[in-house]
Model the fold of this input.
Amino acid sequence: MNKGRFAGFAIAAAIMFLDGFDIVTMSLAAPHVMPEFGLSPGSMGVVFSALLVGLGLGSMLLGPLGDRFGRRPTVTGGAALLALTTLATIASDGVLEFAAWRFATGLALGLCLTNTTAMVAELSPPARRAATVALVSAGMPLGVVAAGLLAPWLVERGGWKLIFLAPGIAAALVALCAWAWLPETRAEQRSGEPNTAARGHLLSRLLQAPLRGRLIHFAAFFGTSAAAMYWFTNWLPVVLPQAGYETSVAAHYLSLAQGGSIAAGVGIGWLIDRGWVRSSFAVCYVVVLMALGLFLVVPPAHWAVLVLIAGGGIAGAHTAIVPLAAKGFPSDVLASAIGIGVAATRIGAIGGSMAGGQLLEAGVTPAQFFAAIAIPVACCLLLAQWRSESVTQARQ
Done:
C-alpha cells in the first residue's frame, strides 16, 4: 500500500469516526438539555430532524461538488465546516438555535460523507471494494461507541457543552491533516482534464438505464433503513431511563449497539463482494425482527443482549448498504449517486425520529416503543430481496 492510499484510508476513517461521534452528540446531550431549557420530546424531535434535513440537502446539493472539483478540496472543506458548526452549537440556548446549528452541521456531514465514501471506493481494489468501504465506514459506529462511552465522563467534568467541544476540536485537526496529506482520487482532477460533472451531465446519466433502476432501489433501501436506525438510535438514551436505567448506562448501551454494528456491517460487506447480497441481508433482518419482538416479553433488566442484536443489526445493515453504491455506480457519478441516496435517508430518518417522538408523547411503554421499530425493519427485509442485483453489478 503506497503512502497516498494509506493517508487516504486513515483520514477517511478519522472523518467517519468524527461523523459518527457528531451525529449522536445531540442524542446524548438531550437528557441534559431537555430539563435545562424545558424542552419536550416533540421539540427535541425538531432538533434531531434539523440535522437530518441538513444532511440530506448537503448530500444532494453539496456532495456532487466532489465529482466536479475533486475529493480532496471537498473532503477538506467539509471537515473544516463540521468543526465550525459543531463548536458553534455550544452557544445555543433554545430550540431555534439548536435546530439552526444542527442543520448547518448536517450540511457539513453531507458534504463529507458522500465524498469520503466515494474516495474510499476509488482507492479500493475492485475485488474487495464493498468490504473495504464497509471496513472504513466502521469508523462511524466506532465514533458512536466513543461518544456513548465519553459522554457521561465529559458531562461530569464540564456539562453537556463538552459533548460538542471535543469533536469540534478534533474535526479541526482532521481538516488540517486532510489539507496536508489527503490524495486526489478523481482521475480527471489529477490530470486536469474536463469531466462529465463539469458539463452538467450527472443527473441525466443517473436517470438513464441501467443506472436509473439502481438509483431508485438504492435510495428506497437506504432511506427505509435510516428510518429504522434513527428511530432506534436517537431515542435509545431517552427511552431506556424510562425503563429504569441510569442515564449513563443508557449512553453505554448506545455504544454497545454500535459496537455490534461494526461486525455486522463488515461481515455483510465481505459477503457482498462474493455475491451473497440477499441471503446476508435476510439473515440479519430476520434476527433483528426476533430481537425486537422479544422486548415485549423479556424484563428490562435483561435488555442488554437485545439492544446489542437489534441495534447492532439495524446499524450494521445500514452501513453495509453504502458499499452497494460503490459496486453499482461509475466513479464519475459515484458521489452524486451517494448524495441522492443519503438525501433519501434523511426522509426516512426524519420519519423515524418523528415517529419515535410521537410514540413517546402518546405514552407507549419502552417495550412497545422498540417493538414498533419492526415495521421499517420488515420493509428493509423486503427491499433487500427486491432487485438487489441491480446495485451489485461490477462497475464498468
In short: Residues 282 and 303 are 23 Å apart (CA to CA).
